[in-house]
Specification:
Layout lengths: L7 E11 L2 E8 L9 E4 L2 E4 L2 E5 L2 E8 L1 H6 L10 E6 L18 E11 L2 E7 L2 H4 L7 E4 L2 E9 L2 E6 L1 H6 L10 E6 L1 H15 L5 H13 L4
Antiparallel strand pairs: 1-2, 1-7, 2-6, 3-4, 3-7, 5-6, 8-9, 8-13, 9-12, 10-11, 10-13, 11-12
């Protein structure tokens, strides 16, 4: 589990193709890594399988399944590209952001940039099956960065980067056509699944659940 608060901007050093899968080598100043621990790499949760010291920092290796390579940008990033890194949340640590699972849903494509004083507004498009989870003032993670959804129009949504986010991440470099890993809000996904389950078959206790969901929807949570 993560919070979407980037701890380091590392670098994708190597990608060793292993059939439909691949093994990545990633440089970071975070460490030392621990065998078996989880790192969010541009928002995708990967497991440390090997590591070594390098240039005052560390290089860790992690395997990517065919599914990860297909759904995320990790299979297409150019070697040497910067990647957002976050270590898994420690029990008892301060929660500075929402819960982020590191399970990438799909891709968001940058559509537009607009400067708003010191802030930067970025507009993205995504598939309708992901866009349905977008709610104004809700949460979304882009390339592992937890952000507040500013506006939603159909399959497009926008976020606003404050100066701190522009300095601490590479999102301010996003240009139209750039592709970023997208993770939608966990709560939205589970609530949607509950709604679909209820719609698919009635049960003796469905009445109370439907009433509660109706209240949530009326209050703007769904």
């Amino acid at each position: 589990m993560f919070t979407g608060l980037v701890e380091d901007v590392g670098k994708l050093l190597t990608r060793e193709v292993r059939g439909p899968s691949a093994r990545l080598g990633i440089a970071t100043m975070l460490g030392p890594p621990v065998m078996g621990e989880s790192f969010a790499v541009d928002g995708a949760c990967l497991t440390v399988d090997a590591f070594r010291p390098s240039g005052g920092g560390w290089v860790f290796e992690a395997d990517c399944s065919a599914e990860t390579l297909q759904v995320t940008t990790l299979g297409s990033h150019a070697l040497g590209s910067p990647v957002h890194l976050e270590r898994a949340l420690a029990v008892g640590a301060r929660l500075g952001g929402p819960f982020v699972a590191g399970h990438v849903d799909g891709i968001a494509v940058a559509e537009n940039r607009q400067h708003l004083g010191d802030a930067l507004k970025l507009t993205f498009s995504t598939e309708a099956r992901h866009a349905r989870f977008m709610v104004e003032k809700g949460s979304v993670a882009l390339a592992g960065v937890s952000l507040t959804v500013n506006e939603v129009q159909g399959d497009r949504f926008s976020i606003v980067l404050i100066p701190h986010s522009q300095r601490g991440t590479r999102l301010a470099d996003a240009r139209p056509g750039d592709r970023l890993n997208l993770e939608t809000d966990l709560l939205a996904r589970y609530v949607a699944r509950l709604l679909e389950t209820q719609a698919g078959g009635a049960s003796a206790t469905a009445g109370h659940d439907v009433s509660l969901l109706s209240k949530l929807r009326g209050s703007g949570y769904l």
